[in-house]
Amino acid sequence: MSQTTQQLHELGQSLWIDNISRETLRDGSLARLIADYSVSGLTSNPTIFEKAMGQGDAYDDAIAQMARDGRSTEDLFFALAVDDLQKAADLFAPIHAATDGVDGWVSLEVSPLLVHDTRGTIQAAASLHAQAARKNLFIKIPGTPEGIPAIEEAIFQGIPVNVTLLFSREQYLTAAEAYMKGIERRLNDGKSPVVESVASLFVSRWDTGVKETVSPQYQNRLGIAIAMRTYKAYRDLLASERWQKLAAAGAHPQRLLWASTGTKDPKAPESLYVEALAAPDTIDTMPDKTLRAFASQGHVGDAMPVDGGCAEQTLDEFRRQGVDIDALAARLQQEGGESFAKSWNALIGGLDEKVTRLTATSPS
Q1: Active-site entry in 51, 87, 135, 140
Q2: pTM (two decimals)
Q3: Is 100 exposed, middle or buried (0-12, 13-18, 19+ CB in 10 A)?
Q4: pLDDT tens-place string over residues 127-154
Q5: Residue 146 contacts residue 172 (beta carbons within 8 Å)
Q6: 13-17 and 39-42 beta bridge pairing
Q7: 140 is known as an active-site residue
Q8: Which candidate, 176, 295, 193, 156, places its Cα nearest to that of 240?
């Protein structure tokens, strides 16, 4: 087992992999990541599935069969994705049981085309949750203005939620508010307060967003400062009287998850963000490449300070460089939704082409 990944585990941070494909399930790659690198969960998104399903022939037989059965392309995709994630969820089930449901999760995203559709998101979350039929599967809902009420309603309905597309402290706190409201509504109705959730803060895209506008000495510093600021808000929330009341009733915290932690700058160390984001009671989800680089070359230093450390001073430096933090957060969230929608459209288009090709060459 990797010593460095185990050290993060002992620090209190969960390591999840930001990847899934039918090949990794079939050839034992995912099982080996669990055994060798302390990986205890998995996330997916449309970009990941676009790559997985668009390359190779691992899905071809299933695509051809479901196409002959008359499935729409979107239904076909979700059937394939759910099947993959059910198998992954079963691999993580022992971890889920051992941690009383805190860890051992996989995630499936609603269609990105619903990013501004509250009612459609609620309906899709309920449908996918029922279709997946796994206790350790999160439904990913974006933390956009339209997604926030859907998050509250999904939690109220007992649907575990991974809040995605969060970029700032303020966006995180809005998602945390939705989670707590959902739990409070459940308690008022006499229901169990235990509905798990994570809030995914995207980190590296901040640095990509300012790469062309700030001085060289400021490269690859903004995302970490935003994360430190958000971690302080997270710890403050867990210490608040409101949360302590919910915890006393049996609720579990909505854990903070670091997303987009692969290094985008080829000049920066591959494990830059993983090392900087070491923090108890959080999750770091990362690509295979980043995980292996950290395991072989990274090191675990001091944990992230609960008081935010130098985050505010660093953010002031970026403001003096002309960066509008709030405006950039809103833009990154919008661009993130657009990026997932683009991947979704490419995914569905690619599946359409495969259906045409496979049904033309396979027997009826």
Answers
A1: 140
A2: 0.96
A3: exposed
A4: 999 999 999 999 999 999 999 999 999 9
A5: no
A6: parallel
A7: yes
A8: 176
